Amino acid sequence: MNGSTGAANRPAGSTARHDEQVSPYAAGFATLRQGFRAAAQRAGAELFEYLHPLNGPDGEDLATDVALLGHRDATKLLVLISGTHGVEGPFGSTCQTAWLNQNSPWRLPEDTAILAIHLINPWGTAWSRRVNEDNVDLNRNFIDWSGPAPVNNGYAGLHDALTCREWEGPDRIGADEKLAVARKKLGHAGLGAIVEAGQYEFVDGMFYGGGGPVWSNRTLNEILTTFAGDARQVIVFDLHTGAGPYGYPALLSVASSEHPGLAWGKSIFGPALATVLTGPSAKTGTGIATTATGYVSDAVRKAIPNARVLPLVVECGTLDGPAVMEAVQADNWLHLFGKIDSPLGKRIRETLRAAFIPNDPDWQRTCLSSSLRYFDRALTDLQAVEIAKDNSRHPGQTPSTVRATVADLVPADDGKITTPAVQIDELHKSFGSLLVLKGVNLTAHAGEVISMIGSSGSGKSTFLRCINLLEQPDGGKVAIDGEVIKMKPLANGRLGPADMAQVERIRARVGMVFQNFNLWPHMTVVENIVEAPRHVLKEPREKAVEHAHALLKKVGLAEKHAHYPGQLSGGQQQRAAIARTLAMRPKVILFDEPTSALDPELVGEVLRVIRQLAEEGNTMILVTHEMQFAREVSHKVLFLHQGKVEEEAAPAELFGSPRSERLRQFLARTL
Ligand SMILES: Nc1ncnc2c1ncn2[C@@H]1O[C@H](COP(=O)(O)OP(=O)(O)OP(=O)(O)O)[C@@H](O)[C@H]1O
After folding, report:
1. Which residue range or ranges hold the ABC transporter domain (predicted)?
2. Which of 175, 278, 294, 565 is most buried, by the most CB atoms less than 10 A from its CB?
């Protein structure tokens, strides 16, 4: 793209450096760039570059690259932005490159396009800084520059302490004391609300929003105007790290007021999407600065005024808030007063990188795989909007109501079904006079992980058992993969299955992992696994055995195939039981407190397997007492209380800002 920001196409790889072997999370700018451009070319995208006026630390050219998959005049557009905060860039870049590779070569419907904007703050990524070349926090720079910039009086009182010249010594002790007093008075959240709100007065200060639109701001606007001008339905992901619970990729939409995109987001992601409304006194449990102005989200909506825009932020938690703030403050000191290449300088830079991208394969894997699933889901919904619009069977219905019609399967262009994998409406169940479930609803989309938490006796296990009709519900609707289980009134006035053949067929698609493993004690592990595929799915023995060995390898039990359950530890038995469930290639897996019968030291090995299944995109409903695990692995969490869903939200929201007193008390007892 030509223009004030400068651009010219250039062959992929021309900026490659010597660090090809480095993990992408630790890679330098040139390697990230090379990987992205190569993936974009393989995917069949058109590539454009927007050259930055400065160079990187090795003298390399800096640029924001743009990959466009599909037609430029597409009306449906999915946008991925990485590196708004430079030091977080390797995460967003890795997501973009992995997603392009995952579905390569891409085949998109004619009016759907993907726009991947790679490292919008290239200077920040190259120099491992959160800010840009002007010390500007890009996510505070998208304000309306035609009027005066917001004033942050609270920050002004702390500026001297936050930017103390000394690294150590009496001035530094005094500055730290001043900040400690403020933190004690306001709490870390209160202090953060002031410091992270952004300020437009001190060019050398923290969270500086700038004095006008910076290069990255102008470039993003130019890209959006050029490539998104014709779009009418736009979903934008801005990829971040550094706030919220460790290793949990929260999905947020940040907005200063309600807009139609938010309702659209809720219809796609349900409670997995947390809406963060910003304002001078707004609060959230997500770790995002609600008091700030000038977010990228504001920019994308303004740049494409004729479209319905859903601006999303993927925010992967790392360290706790004070540790991240300390790392950012130290980095600000280094660039104001320190020596970048000194041992102290190197330590500060390493600390900053680790505060935003932990050197932890579990964190990296979880954040990447969950983010890719968010992209998949968003793209599927874009396609569903298109189908719904053209589908004369649904006149007058909005796309989201079409999606919510359980028994009405709507195949997308790529053949994917857009109905939920599991939908439960108003489920009721009594045992004698004991009313256990009083109208429970749940929707699980393909690839979603939902955890159910609640006190003992609240009905969690009963609910799971009703899903695959191990218990007969008294009322309500259960649909698996769009197929509603047919029920009929029985002589005793209750409901029962109308068609047992249908129940058997649906049960074969719903795997269940029990608390007590339920392995056959007289069969070896491998015989346990092949039993159901052989007799229910009629798989040939050889094929079933081969699959069983592959599954045993997956759960780390390759060596134990000939053992009997009694010769295995509890953790090993549960992993074998998971392999047995997977052998049926289930559409959805139900876990009923899979670790509660285990000794504490065996819990981890089972949770690792479940986490891996979540990362692979399996649809799972998990009843658990492992709160931290539920928080890390789930897209949404349901709190069941006395047979009703009391609260349902994304984990960051449910655990961070419980709304009901009952949930607060429950969490206080269990966390
Ligand atoms: N087959 C049954 N017959 C009679 N009552 C039952 C039966 N199964 C469960 N219940 C009762 O239903 C209520 C809910 O039990 P359920 O096992 O679903 O709770 P839960 O939330 O899973 O509890 P926990 O966390 O202790 O496993 C309890 O009061 C239990 O005693």
Report:
1. 422-667
2. 294
Report whether the peptide linkage leading into residue 105 is cis, meaning its omega lies within 30 degrees of zero: yes
SS3 230: coil
pLDDT of residue 11 exceeding 70, the answer is: no
More confident residue, 272 or 413: 272
Residue 164 is encoded by which pair of tokens? Answer: 């103390």
Same domain assignment for residues 445 and 462: yes
Residue 296 CA to residue 138 CA, distance in Å, equals 8
> In ligand 1, which atom is closest to the CA atom of 640?
21
Q: What is the pTM of this model?
A: 0.63
- Does the Cβ of 31 fall within 6 Å of ligand 1? no
How many domains does the structure of the chain reveal? 2
Residue 566 lies in a domain: yes
DSSP bridge pairs for 513: 591
Asked whether 462 lines ligand 1 (CB < 6 A), one says yes
The answer on 670 and 576 residing in a single domain is no
Whether 595 and 503 share a structural domain = yes
Rounded Cα distance between 564 and 555, Å, is 16
What number is the average pLDDT over the span 357-382?
A: 88
Q: Is the pLDDT of residue 390 over 60?
A: no
Does 633 share its domain with 532?
no
Instruction: Copy the structure tokens of residue 433.
Output: 């006079």
Check pocket membership of 456 for ligand 1, CB cut-off 6 A: yes
Tens digit of each residue's pLDDT (9 = 90 or more) over 429-446 = 999 889 999 999 999 988
Question: Which structural domain, as residue segments, surrounds residue 436?
Answer: 420-509+588-671
d(CA 461, ligand 1 centre) in Å: 7
Please state, in angstroms and rounded to a whole number, the distance separating the CA atoms of residues 512 and 591.
6
Give the separation between CA 403 and CA 408, rounded to whole angstroms: 8
Q: Are residues 489 and 592 in the same domain?
A: yes
Highest mean pLDDT among 576-580, 607-611, 615-619: 576-580
Examine the fold and report which residue of 540, 565, 585 is the final residue of a domain before the chain moves on.
585
CA of 401 to the centre of ligand 1 (A): 34
Q: What is the pLDDT of residue 282?
A: 64
pLDDT at 17 over 70: no
Question: Residue 386 — pLDDT band, cuts 50, 70, 90?
Answer: low
- What's the order of all strands across the beta sheet hosting 588-592? 510-513, 588-592, 619-623, 449-454, 636-641, 644-649
Query: DSSP assignment, residue 511?
Result: E
Q: Is 461 in the pocket of ligand 1 (CB under 6 A)?
A: yes
CA of 624 to the centre of ligand 1 (A): 14
pLDDT for the residue numbered 2: 31
**Biggest CA-to-CA distance, the chain:** 85
Say if ligand 1 is within 6 A of residue 431 CB. yes
pLDDT of res. 417: 40
Among protein residues, the one whose CA lies closest to atom 1 of ligand 1? 431
> 522 and 483 in one domain?
no
Q: Whose CA is nearest to atom 27 of ligand 1?
A: 456
Q: How far is the CA of 517 from the centre of ligand 1 (A)?
A: 18
The CATH number of residue 669's host domain is 3.40.50.300
What is the CA(431)–ligand 1 centre distance, in A?
Answer: 9
Task: Return phi, psi of residue 430, to 5°.
Answer: -125, 150
Quick one: 630 and 664 in the same domain?
A: yes
The two tokens of residue 368 are 């990447």
Provide the token pair at 430.
Answer: 């009594």
The token pair at 343 is 């041992």
The whole-number pLDDT of residue 385 equals: 79
